[in-house]
Amino acid sequence: MESAAKSSSVKNVVVRVLLFGVFVLIVRFVYVVTVYGGPCNSGDFCLLPFPGEGLSVTSAGGGASAGSAAFVRVADGSTGATPALWTTREWRKAVDYYSAVFQDLLVDGFVSPTAKSLCVDTPTGHEVLALKEIGVLDAVGVAKKKAPPLVVAGGDLLHLPFRNGTFDFVFAGRSLDRSKRLAHLASEIVRTLKPDGFLAVLTASAGNAYSLHSLIDLFPSFWKLRFRKLDGPDSSSAIHEIVFQKQLDGDILAVDGKEAEDSSPSSSCSIPEHKLRLLESAEPLIKEEPLKPWIALKRNIKNIKYLPSMVDISFKPRYVYVDVGARSYGSSIGSWFRKQYPKQNHTFDIYAIEADPAFHDEYAAKKNVNLLPFAAWVRNETLAFEINHDPEQHDVEKEKGGRGMGRIRPVSRLSGGVSSGEVHSIHGFDFAKWLKRTVSESDFVVMKMDVEGTEFDLVPRLFETGAICLIDELFLECHYNRWQRCCPGERTPKYRKTYGECLKLFTSLRKSGVLVHQWW
Question: Are 29 and 47 in contact (CB under 8 A)?
Fold first, then answer.
């Protein structure tokens, strides 16, 4: 009896110890799940350890299914800062969306399970987890702030914390839509991608040929492999997917060499087809000379179809407005361009080219306006600047004490000639050459030209040098011997060109593919 009692007592002790151990493990497991948001490693007394190294993913049911909670962990035991986010329906819905996108890219060979992959500007890491769930395990995200274990910090994203040629696949999901410095971000993507690697871009833009070509121009060393429309994450709006492949170094050199060889004999350029098609939507030119040009041409401004009203001008690395013959700030920059021109929320670099010193002091107080106090001309030389007291001067100039409009001429043309106003010597500069140094073909360039007859010198020079292809939209005031408002039946003696010659200038610009508007 005594032996049986001792045996029973020992069993009770053993059972209690086992129950206590089980209770401790259960408490520990509940604590880990509550604190970490999912299973941990074996060093934390986990009941469901994960095999393998690095970041691992699974779902509540062992796979990725809609509505399930996604768990994330790292082998060293570190965890994400916001694990509760990974269990929400919104998180799961976003991950499933990108999983579907990546599955198509995987099937088509643009990304592989062994590809070292980068997701750019992914604040919470949906895209990274989606890649891992379809088997692309070597994936990481970068954003302004880190979100471990999926996303590392990249600051302003203009200096990505990776070496040159690190990744086989880069995903830019709407990052280009959000960036204010597209050229720099694109450059970083190019730098970190291996030659022959793939880049996939999602964007709400690129819905027209102009915007798509602007995007392509950001990656000159890439081939465009695919363009298609997709449903957005919320299915309420469509987005576009563009897939690129980075050329091998040898291919880039071959292409660059061919372009250099083709362009060496001449400085001329050709307007791309997508720009030529825009002319079909432009307002018609006024064919008949108006008897009251001060009314007809001014009314025509209301008919102008601005380029940004026809196309999406996104994906331009820079936006530039050049006012040639700017006169006072309020003449066109302040009164028209800044108030009326549709900029699509882009910030423009503004250049005011004005030779008349009477207006120079005014620009000193204007922020974000670069004044060039010279005359736009076909070469660098000293010019005669003549101020004519025209009775039809603009209202803004009247406020300047009746100062007339300036006209430039080479000094040699003044010898033996008759001047009708004040004459001063000024510096003229090669405008076409300056334009080619200041902007690039990938920039968005708007120009207004009001140069008192010098347009018949400047425009041919722009064609001769190829600088004309740098201009996206041109507002040109052509000066001719028009009928005078002050003196019925009389033409102005200030200009010798006729309206027919002006019309010929506008027509030649449009036939060459330049979106030019008749300006007043």
Answer: yes
How much is the pLDDT for 392?
52
Q: pTM, whole model, 2 decimals?
A: 0.76
Domain boundary among 250, 268, 295: 250
Give the separation between CA 289 and CA 46, rounded to whole angstroms: 88
Residues 181 and 296 in one domain: no
Q: In this structure, what token pair is assigned to residue 42?
A: 């074996």
Q: Do 222 and 292 reside in the same domain of the chain?
A: no
CATH code of the domain in which 102 resides = 3.40.50.150
Task: Show Cβ contacts of residue 500 under 8 Å, excluding neighbours closer than 6 positions.
Answer: 289
Tell me phi and psi for residue 172, to 5 degrees: -110, 85
* Domain presence at residue 64: no
Strands in 405-410's sheet, in edge-to-edge order, are 375-377, 422-430, 381-388, 405-410
Average pLDDT for consecutive 10-residue bins of the chain (520 residues)?
61 75 70 47 40 40 39 41 70 93 96 97 93 96 92 90 96 89 93 97 91 93 95 82 86 41 52 87 92 80 92 94 96 95 96 93 92 96 73 48 55 49 83 97 95 94 94 95 84 88 95 91
Assess if residue 65 is contained within a domain. no
Q: Which two tokens stand for residue 248?
A: 């091998």
Please name which of 450, 466, 469, 475 lies closest in space to residue 375, comparing C-alpha atoms: 450
Nearest to 153 by CA among 84, 81, 95: 81
Residue 235's Cβ-count burial label (10 Å; 0-12, 13-18, 19+) is exposed
The answer on 199 and 317 residing in a single domain is: no
Examine the domain organization and report whether 371 and 431 are in the same domain: yes
State which residues form the domain around 192.
88-250
Give 250-262 as a 3 state SS string.
HHHHHHHHHHHHH
- Residue 250: the pLDDT is 44
Number of domains into which the chain is organized: 2
Residues 318 and 381 in one domain: yes
